[in-house]
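The protein record reproduced below.
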Amino acid sequence: MSHQDEGGRGERWVLAQTALLVLYVAVPGRHFAWRSPGALLAAAGVALASIAALQLGCGLTPYPEPSAQGTLVQGGIYAWVRHPIYAGVLVAASGAAWATHSPWRALIASALFVFFDAKTRDEERRLSRRYEGYAAYARSVHKLIPWIY
């Protein structure tokens, strides 16, 4: 996959992301253990991604190309991590892998981390072109894991 779809919004990234998420859901695992620590982690991830999506508002898009209606959001969850929706998906995927005792889901959750790390590189190039203050924001806020990465 090239670092950027020539002239596009990043459709290849969305297609690959969809394929990984469909594969994640399709792999075998036990029934979801609702009273497990994994279930709490999965719920926390869904909550994180949902709150982050609401904070983006009309700027929400699955593509790495920023939405024409969007603005640079730096407050709320975005003050802690630059890509909280992806972080939430990773936390939810890891928690659900744990709650279903599925090594395959754990492997795909790891692949999702590698994928989102790569997708954010393209997305951040686009965000830097679109928003003058993005480079300074990126220097002060971690990408996917607060205080760590």
